[in-house]
Structures are given as structure tokens and as C-alpha cells.
Amino acid sequence: MPRKKLTLITGTEQTRLTLTKQLQEYLSDMVTIKSYAIDEGIPNRVTEGLVVLSSYLVQEELMNLELLGDGCDIVVAQRTISYDCIDEIVLLPKGREVLFVNDAQASAHEGIYILQKLGVDYLKFTPYFPGMDEVKTDIDIAITPGEIDKVPSFIKKIVDIGPRIMDFTTITKILYQLNLLDYKAEDLSDKYLEKIINMAKRLAQFTNEIAHLNEHLSLVLDGLNDGLLVYDLQGSISVLNENLKRMLKIANSNPTGKNTKEVIYNKALLRFLMDKSIEGDKIFSLDGLEILIRKLYLSNSNHIIATFKSIKETMETNDRIKQELMKKGHYAKYTFEDIIGGSNKIIKVKQIAQKLSTTDLTILIEGESGTGKELFASAIHHASKRKKGPFLAVNFSSLPDELIESELFGYEEGAFTGAKKGGKAGIFEEADGGTIFLDEIGDISMKVQARLLRVLQEKEVMRIGGHHIKSVDVRIIAATNRDLSQMVKEKSFREDLYYRLKMGYMKLPPLRERKEDLQLLIDYFIKIESGESIVIQEDALGKLFKYDWYGNVRELENILSYMLAVRENNHLTIEDIPDKGFFITTSNHGKELEKEPPPVLKEDMVYLLKKIYELNQKKLLVGREKLAEVSKITSYPMTPAQIRGRLDELERLDFIKKKRGKHGTIVTQKGEKYLMALFGDELAL
Ligand SMILES: Nc1ncnc2c1ncn2[C@@H]1O[C@H](COP(=O)(O)OP(=O)(O)OP(=O)(O)O)[C@@H](O)[C@H]1O
């Protein structure tokens, strides 16, 4: 059979390519296809043979140009949307407004008509074509058959369904004209069927995925603590979760698709939900429960989301959270990335810390107040193999001994008056598997030092008043702003404990020794407190460089917070720097104290101090009468009046504190240290 001929003529190149491809699919083995597009120019007048035109507009234009001879058999194509592209349209939400963009008014309307005929009647179409008078600019999705360059710029999402293809009837007509219908009929219907089956398969897969997603979503929604309602402006419900069903007392029925009126009978609540102009939160009483309802209008889908929160439960949760937060730092907040600084000194300690974080050694961190000891401890924990375990911080300064002990080791029920029913686990038990940060370790008494040493040696704890020993697996990071080695020399810190703690050691440099980090730190704090738009002026920066920063990074952070609060505009100026009085002017006072030479006390004063200490240890009341009585049988007999004078002197030296109430006079930490220096371990026993 000689090869038959067909000429395809379209308006644009893009349509020519699409339709040629489609014709080749059916005819390439038997027909020679020539194709032209008016846009590209048509070289010769077509005078005979089968001519397929992509549209009536093309026919009209060819007639006008007198490019079609009378001897031609003409088929003007009916065009339809390609099934390959329909998936994306199917996924658009019901009721969504979309722009249908085509090259001319007629083709835009035609495209919409075809889509609606194919069943896409759930979208709100607006036709769009170049040169239109009025354009709706609040629509953000456009569908176009390959005319992407004609889509207006306010559109956010374009669904390109590609140029329209010839429909089934047109292909049949062409085959008929070519006398190939009998020969190709079966092939044609097979190919069409295959396309439709493929589309059906894809849609089925989507439906499955959607069903699966829906199932997952409803599990998530039902797991929420709050009630959740999603509905459209007419009140039709698309989501009502289990918790809300409980609040509204809707038993087993499925409320999806129902109207809000059918499930909510409280008139005021209904009015609140349905009135688009009422915004914000409101409290309603539902079945005796106070419920806070928050409404949010989603303008892009014309839906409203309302959350329902039980006020009582919210308050209870808030209280619980507050309680949790009061137990300082149950998790490590900081990582090495949060440690700012590019100076050699900080880089060096960071490297040591990083190395130590790969070990499980106990670490002692020394550094003045505010140098970042806790920050480092937290970063080490975060980078260690214990990172999933708890990170608990205890600050020993200002805590009385009894409290330290019960916090660290816990207690059994009835261990002391006021002990909680059922007892309480201590921090060592709670931190099992994690890290404990012991801050201001230089402040603990000899007694606590002894207990701590035992836990470190044995890796076991026993609650106060308890009999069971429990093994614990914790890593200790201790910190101090004092010179512990000096304290060891003076015998106010146990040497054995010191070496136990100091298996890993780091000393954090004070800020005044690494002033090159100031700029980085300042930028960092400005950024985290106020964003990047704020800058510090040169002269202000210069002034800050001159300070000694005895309060280190914490002081810098505080000064910057002050400056950010008082600034006039986006600049931090020299005027924003607070008065001198705001700055810390001496090095950390702990060390200052250490340097002070201890006073020389007369023997009777030492005797008195030691006696008070012993009575304190036995928890006996210490008063002038009692002291006078016990002094009678010693080499230092004193009357109550003499004792009063000496007690005044001891108090002036800050060695004792006279208190009213059941304890009477007590020895202060400074007094204890003084005695330690004289009597050493003999005192602790
Ligand atoms: N290098 C740093 N980079 C960023 N922030 C830092 C740095 N050093 C310290 N800080 C910040 O300074 C403040 C004080 O740090 P931190 O509490 O760790 O100091 P500290 O040495 O434990 O102080 P103290 O001895 O008084 O307990 C924190 O807000 C911390 O985040």
C-alpha cells in the first residue's frame, strides 16, 4: 500500500508539536505527516490531500490568506484536555476559585466548558485572556493549557495542563478520511482504553493515599487535648475531633458534612462561630465546663477553624509546667554552637571541652562568675553519649546543708518532720543515665563533701532515713568561682574530693582577658534579643571595650539588655550605656575573701566558736546560758555577760550568726572554714 499523506496546520508551534505527536502515535507506520504553524509561517499553498486544522480560527485565517486549495479534504479538530494532565486538577480543593488562562476569550471559555464536561465542576472558574478589561486579583491559582506566558503575575501556583489534544471523534474522522478506520479501529480503542485505565488507576491511587492521609490526620486530631472544629462559611463541618465530640456530648455519630446547627444547640455559641465579623477568643459554658473558644478564619480556603480549650485543664497544665520549670534545667539548653568567641583562649577551652565530652570523666570547671561555666557543662552533656539522659543542675550557694542533702540524696517517708509522704528521690536518682552539674561546689560544707565523696567512690546512693542502697550511673560536672586548690591547702575543701572531681579540668578565661570576643558577643546578644536591624555605634563600642567586665559575659548580657531597653531608635549610642554604678567594679568576691588574711582569735574565742559549731552539729539550741554552763568545766569559764561580748565580736567577724528561734546561734561558712583551717578533719568527725 503506498504511504498516505496528511498535512497538519495549527496556530502555534507548541500546538503543532503536541498534535503531531498525537497523530504519530496512531499513524506513523502508514502515513507521512507534514505539519505547519501559522506563527512559524506556511511556505506553500496546500492544494490537495487530507488537511487537519487545529481549530476553526485556524481555518478562517487560512481562508483569508488563501492558503487552502479547493481540492483539500479538511478535518477541523475538536480538542479536549489531555488525560495525562488531569491529576493535578483533581487534587485542587472543592470550591476553590481558579483562573482559566488561554490566549483568547473564546478559547478560555471553551477550556472551562471542556473541564466541566469532564466532571471538574467543583472548582469556581474565572476565564482569563490577554487584554481583558477587569481582572480578579484575589485568586492565586491558574490553570492553563500551555499558555504559561499569559498567566498574570499575581498568581502563586500555575497548573499547566499542556496544549489540548484532539478528541476521540476527530481521530476517528481522520482515520475514516484516510480509509484506515477498519484497519485501525481496534488499535484506536485499545489506546484510548489504556489511557482511561491509566488515569483511573492514578486516581484510585490518589484516593487511597488521601484516605490513608485522612486516617492519619484524624488520629492526630483525635489525639489533641483540645476540641477542634473546621467548617465553611455556610456551617458545613469538615472536621470535628473526638475531644470536641466529648465536650458537645455527641455520641457515636459522624458529624462530617453536617451543619454546625445540627450539632451545636447553644445559640450564643453558634452566633459566635458563624458570624465572620466576630473575631478573637471567647469563653462559653458548655455543660457546666468553662471553655475558651478561639476562632481563626482561613481566607484562602474560606474555612474557619475553632479550637475549644477547657479552662480548668489549661490552668492545671500551666501549674504543672511551672512546677517542672522550677526544678532548674531538666534538659541541657546549650550546645557548643551557643558558645560565642573567636579568641585563642576561648577556642582552646572549647577544644578541651569537646575532647572531654567524648569521655565519661568527672570534670571540674573553674572560672569567675558569668564566664559560662553552666553553658560549657550543658554543651558537654549535649555532645556526650549521655545526651538523651537528663541534665540536672544544682546551685549550692545559699542552700542550707539539710536542704542540700535532701535535694541530692532524697529521703524516705518520715525521715524528718515535714518529709513528704512516700519519700522523695534525690537528684542523683533522678539524673540516672545523665549528667549532674554541681554549681558553686566550693560552697558546700565538710559534711556534704564527705557524703558526695562517698557517692562518687561507690556510685551508690542511700536516701536520708533509708536502708536501701541504689546504684546510680551519673556523670558529675562541678563548677566553682573559687580557687579550690587554695581551699585544699587551707583544709576547707577535702583533698580527696578535689582530685575525684578534677579528673577532667577546664579553666574559663575571664572576659577582660579576651576582649577581642566583645564584638562577636555584642552582635550575638543584640541579634538574639532584638533581631539584626539594631547596630551599635563606634564610640559606644569603644567605651564598652574599656570596661573590665568583672561580671563577665553575664554582665555584658545585662548591660546590653539595658541599652536595648532605653535606646531611642535602631542605634545603640554612648548615651544608652548605664552609669558607672551599674557595672561590677571588683573581681569576684569569693576570691577576694580567700585573699584576706584570717583574723587571729584569742583561745577563748576559738573555744567558743568550736563549741557553737559542735552544738550546731548535734542540732542543740545554742544560747548564752548554755554556753556559760558548758564553759564552767573548761579552762575558759565565762559568764553569760562575757559570752555576749565575745559573741558580738564573732558576729562582727562574720563567723557566727545570732538567730532567734529554735537554733539560736549558728556558725557561718566563713566560721566553719576558719575552724577547718585550725582543726582539719577532726572537726568533721
Ligand atoms: N561564650 C559565651 N557565648 C554566649 N553566651 C555566653 C558565653 N559565656 C557566657 N554566656 C552567657 O552568659 C550567661 C552566664 O553564663 P553561665 O550561667 O554559664 O555562667 P557561670 O560561669 O555558670 O556563672 P555563675 O558562676 O555565676 O553561675 C548566660 O546567659 C550564658 O548563656
TrEMBL record:
Q: Which Pfam families does the UniProt record give?
A: AAA_lid_14, Sigma54_activat
| Biological processes per GO annotation | regulation of DNA-templated transcription
Q: Which UniProt keywords apply?
A: ATP-binding, DNA-binding, Nucleotide-binding
Q: Please give the superkingdom of this protein's source.
A: Bacteria
GO terms for molecular function, please?
ATP binding; DNA binding
Where is the Sigma-54 factor interaction domain positioned along the sequence? 339-565
Per the UniProt record, which residue ranges are transmembrane? none
Q: Which PANTHER family match?
A: C4-DICARBOXYLATE TRANSPORT TRANSCRIPTIONAL REGULATORY PROTEIN DCTD, TRANSCRIPTIONAL REGULATORY PROTEIN
Protein name stated in the entry: Transcriptional regulator containing PAS, AAA-type ATPase, and DNA-binding Fis domains
**Which organism does this sequence originate in?**
Natronincola ferrireducens
